[in-house]
Amino acid sequence: MALEIKILDYGDIELESSFLVLARECGRTRRVPVYGFLILGGTYPIVVDTGYRDNAIMETLGMRGLQFHENMIENQLARHGVKVGDVRYVCHTHLHIDHAGKDDKFPMNTTVVINRREMECSVSGLMHPQYPKPDIQHLIERLHTPHALRFEDLELSGAIELIPGVYLEAANAHTEGSMNVHVETAEGLATICGDVIYDFQDQIVEPLFQVNDHEVQVTGNHAGSKRSEKAAVKKLLNSSRFLLPIHDKPAKIENGQVVGRLDMQVPGPVSQTVQKRNWFPV
């Protein structure tokens, strides 16, 4: 059975628009989804990212959480016939507030997998309070529980195979320890890319305020350089058939361009084709 990815809907958040795309609509609020992903087709289910803990915790960042009963992680997994105890690995693209808030729902014999550098970043204070205390404290408990936590050093090792067809690789963008999760599907390589991309339309399809050919716009929330963020996005566009960020619907990629958008699974039907505006007269 080929691997496939189901999208888990953890609710929405409302936040300032330029937090997502640099200099976009400063002072205006946008509502965006918060997704996680369920990888099926291997020996055991794998979850990538677990959403935010509760609505109240988002207020610590000046954001509004919109999470309801149907968005609870156990209910989202149940839609696909999976219980939290069935999950072998929980992988994290990174540990920000809206990505690692439900790890304590999983038993200690479910192994949480992170890039070691991301754990270091989470306690450095560099992006406080985007790494909230209860989430990181739970990971410390896992750190001292046999087999409950798994570290990789992806900047040094290169890509690591987690299970056949699932690979972990350093993202080199957004946070110091972000990682991408590559999944080999029947229709090509799909990459769960966390927050390396926030918004396909304004960063890639019609990159805001960019005039150079094939230049992408950066996000308004990154720990590294703009150069490294642009390079990380371009690498994704030139290596994967599908890209799955946390706050936007997945995209289908051809020849380094976004050509379609998908809904709640990958592979799956393209729900919307994308055409970039022609800047030159024909």
From TrEMBL:
Sorted UniProt keywords: Hydrolase, Metal-binding, Zinc
Entry-linked Gene3D superfamilies: Ribonuclease Z/Hydroxyacylglutathione hydrolase-like
Organism: Jannaschia pohangensis
Stated family: Belongs to the metallo-beta-lactamase superfamily.
InterPro entries in the record: MBL_superfamily_lactonases (IPR051013), Metallo-B-lactamas (IPR001279), RibonucZ/Hydroxyglut_hydro (IPR036866)
Molecular function GO terms recorded: hydrolase activity; metal ion binding
Segments forming domain Metallo-beta-lactamase: 33-247
Protein name: Glyoxylase, beta-lactamase superfamily II
Matching Pfam families: Lactamase_B
